[in-house]
Q: What sequence folds into this?
């Protein structure tokens, strides 16, 4: 085998390895990406039924119910509501009337079951996705 053939084979093997590594990284990123949807988008059927996503907005006043470690609450963008069930310890700053983002998926009964819940971290902060959702819903209401 001549020198240029060895270099060509080495470059071809390197490009093939790079292509396989890129495909594996893109596949991992795609399968772990959780896109944000507002309650209005969820009600319109825009949210995926077969994979995890995030839903956010304000936690409706009076909607928080606890049964042992399972908490059920309603996230709203003031136009539509999504009922969320979460098993675990809610963040310390989680409150009714404040912003929250829940990540999870729909179960077989059509309930949104969260695997994680994020809450605001100070008096003036709301997660950007939740603030945008509330702002957009406010613009569409008469």
A:
């Amino acid at each position: 085998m001549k020198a240029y053939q060895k270099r060509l084979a080495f470059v071809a093997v390197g490009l093939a390895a790079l292509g396989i590594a890129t495909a594996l990284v893109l596949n991992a990123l795609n399968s772990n990406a959780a896109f944000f949807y507002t309650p209005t988008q969820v009600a319109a059927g825009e949210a995926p039924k077969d994979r995890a996503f995030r839903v956010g907005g304000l936690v409706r006043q009076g909607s928080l119910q606890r049964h042992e470690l399972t908490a059920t609450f309603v996230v709203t963008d003031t136009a539509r509501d999504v009922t969320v069930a979460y098993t675990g310890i809610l963040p310390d700053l989680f409150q009714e009337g404040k912003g929250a983002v829940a990540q999870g998926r729909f179960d077989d009964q059509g309930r949104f079951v969260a695997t994680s819940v994020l809450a605001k971290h100070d008096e003036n902060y709301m997660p950007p996705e939740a603030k945008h959702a509330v702002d957009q819903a406010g613009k569409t209401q008469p």
About this structure: The chain has two domains: 1-33, 36-140. The first strand starts at residue 36 and ends at 37.
